[in-house]
Fold this sequence. Notes:
The chain is of the alpha/beta class and 521 residues long. It has 18 helices and 21 strands.
Amino acid sequence: MKVYEGAILTVDANDTVARYLVEEGGTIRYVGDELPERYAGASRERLGERALCPSFVDTHQHFASLATFNAGLNVMEARSNDEIKRMVAEFSRTYAGKILIAFGASPYSVAEGRLLSRSELDEACPDKPVMMVKYDGHACVVNSMLLGMIEKDVSGQRGYHPDTGEMNQEAFFKALDRITGSISIPQLVANMQRAMDYLAARGIGMVHTVSGVGFPGDMDISIEKWVGRSAQSGFQVRVFPQSLEVKTALKRGLPRIGGCFACALDGCFGSRDAALREPYEGADDAGVLYYTDEQLIGFCCEANRAGLQIEMHAIGDAAFDQATRVLKAALDDFPRQDHRHGIIHACLPTESGMRICADYGIHLPMQTSFIDWPQEPDSYLASIMGERRASRLNPLRTLWDAGITMSAGSDAPCTDPDPILWMQRACNHSVEGQSLTPREALRMCTYNGAWTTFDEDLRGSLEVGKVADMVVLSENPYEVRASELGRIKVERLLLGGLAYRCQSQGFLSAVVKGIAGKSRI
Length: 521
């Protein structure tokens, strides 16, 4: 039994700030302002200037991809291609893997204003195969050695550019299949172990992962299920298979389906293929809708009738409108009171679509990290969409006031999973009048995330009877100026009342046992 004394940010229905919390056996036994006599002799931790809040939930990430790329080289912070070349050259000297994977390159955050070329990667690393993945996860550049290995797979595919080494569209996915297919199961599990530790260091105790791309036989879905069952620390994993085939979820016993890739209705702003209702600035095209309404309505009706929770990627306003139309059609076909269908990203929502979300209870797993994002700067977004449309991006206050439930996700590995950054960006929106309060932002990052996958009865807030999944913060975000929220540190993650410890050497054997185990996934 342990007593926590100080600022207890419960994130309950009333946003109560209590003085005491008592944890026993991994469960919260008491929360309130006066400590009952029966707990007087328990071990006590005085928080002082610190604060205790629920553990954070990342409601949209690609966990297997994060695990794979996190084992490689992150170049997101580089501000020139010369710097990236130096990083690749230095990393290659000690890297022992078969293929060097770097991630996070953006033409919009480097001085040259373009991606590295194949020849530049050759200069940096001529003797090892290299894949430099673009920040949005929709394209890559390969060096000559890797191109020689994958040429038969990618030549003739749309998006194949051997002169520059850039692979996008189908060519990128073929290249990615080849890379992920070369990763052994033990290596993938070890990468997931390290990724879980990385997330826990940020105070994240639960992830919603979209899976089923790049790995043979959708191996990532199965392994993520096993990892979720076997995590010895109490870390929670909720798996969404990225498929329009309802049987993909049903045959695995998963209660949910959706994500990006096969479930993406459009592309992204970085590749100018996010679907817009009006053309991009100075162009005739308005992006791409990958499916017809009829195709999506058929999928959504089948999944909804099967009792599944549905999530789909929509970035542009045309895609957002389509997502709301098809989900509405499915719910009109077979009404469900508590379906918790969602639209991922929802970067450019429309008034008509927002009304459907509010009326039909459609939630939005959003990425506040996209606000003032160095990989996709506001200046770039304004240049391709115009100031008027750019000012409508990620309208958090408008959505919140409309009564639409929003949660927070990283879209990792596209952005670094950092809940403190999520709150800082949410409370300091680049568009005047669209910021949230710190209390709203914390709810978005905790309770709303647990609610999204029906976990709110056990997690998401600090209330009696719930699992003691908690984070100790260096300061109370309710008392820090919104502009200074970024200075707060995650000091400790507690899952089931115990301080998170890095996964043990026996993690792989625990995963094997998890194959036959049962838990919420």
